[in-house]
Amino acid sequence: MSEQGRGEDAADPLLEVRELTVHHGQLRALDRISLRVFPGEVYAIIGANGAGKSTLLRTIAGLHHPTEGSILLDGQDVTRVRPERRATRGIVLVPEGRRLFGSLSVEENLQVGATYARKGPWTIERVYELFGWMRERRAQRTAQLSGGEQQSVAIGRALVANPRVLLLDELSLGLAPVVVQRIYGMLPQILATGLTVLLVEQDVSQALRVASHLQCLLEGHTTLEARPAEVTAEQVEAAYFGLNVRPGPAPAVGERSEPLWPGSTRSSRAS
Amino acid sequence: MAWVNAIIQGILTGGLYALFACGLSLMFGVMKVVNLAHGDLAVIGGYVAIGIITVTHLPVLWSIVVVVPLMAALGYVLQRTLIQASLDRSVLTTLIVTFGLSVVIENGLLQFFTANSRAIGTGNAIITSSFSLGSQIQIAYLLVVIFATAVIVLLGLQYFLSRSKYGRLIRAVADDKEAAQMCGADYRHVFGIAAAIAFGTVALAGIAYGMYSQLAPTTGTDTILLFAFAAVVIGGLGSLWGTLLGGVVLGVAQQIGAQINISYEVLAGYLVFLAVLVVRPEGLTARRARS
Lengths: 271, 291
Prior knowledge:
Chain A is α/β, with parallel strands linked by helices. Chain A contains ten helices and ten strands.
């Protein structure tokens, strides 16, 4: 129930992932994951802690090496391309935990983002227009900002590179719901400039609200792929927690309390 | 008056120590590499300058114009090859590799230039002379020139790091090299630039030391590296002005020690170094603790 009626019958996918398998040491974090992201889409990947969502985004950005499979940008294989070259070719990641340059000011963070930018609509000036408060506080160190403000700077730093595909890793992590809503509220303005977004989110309701396409991961497998309008809350819940799952056996919900890798440790480095 | 003299001489030699130390501090701050060959690189810089002066009879200033870019280029190449390769394995590997580099350089110099010490002739009467302040204070013009050079280099470095595109990238990579990659920056290239700066400044310091004192193949490890370490630790990592202050404190401590008894010169410097490690291990000027 995936690709029909996605409105881009003739278009080729902008980003394609084919049968991607990634290992963390002995652990198989991703098992033959495939996805096709079309231009202008908001493609959301949901799943519980340890489902492999962040690993998927980091592999697409070039920070992990897949054991098998390939990643294509606009039909060109970028699987062996170094992360910084992928960024300049248009795959830009807003990493989990924001990862701002802590000893640099807000403006310097944006300037670093713009150093190797592609040509495009986004400039530092435009980011200041998108986030009204930022211009006034551009000389401040990012450590002095609130979590939501830091997340906005991280998004701005990615935008000024003029990405073709913007990868957003857990924007909501550690932020108050109202702040999360405000940040996701910016998405239409960002999409209006012709970007494509691939995002990872633990907050399912938030993902359902913004996504044009949905893929659910569980322990490195795809358990659901659909348009948000096509699925019921029960189906999403079942896919999220692995209740009567299709591919491969999954443990019961209670056994999954421990995350497979500590994703939250990275956020401390950003400050 | 003798004490005032000691303090003035100490401050001026501190400039030279800061010039030794700033590259060491930069390489540690940016790529977490403790370059144990740092002192030997200064000696190479000095020996190359001696070679150029002997062969071409150019004045010292011109040898600096040749040697500093040459050493900077060597820094970039070494960082992109040997040091990066060891860094890819682990930070500890870089200690072993730079130690090995130090041994190789030292023995290479012994092999080709013998153990004799050499001085760099300035060939300029004014530079080698000194002027008097009062009856007991004699200040060498050379030392004043070296101190001024150190301050100018540190000012320039500060300006470069805080204002230029590559300076910003160096600071960004030092904060988080993976995040810098996500901005399209090749951190290995940025590391290379930082190493080029470190090698260039230490070569300049080596030439200055060769004019002020004498260079032997072992000077790099038994004097320069240790003084540079002491200056960095006393001043605190991550701050160029801290490095200058560290150099000055070390220089003053040595001169005061020498004033008490000439054999206490080096000892006094290390006593202050140890005292700082015990009382204020983050250094005198460290603004923020870095994990």
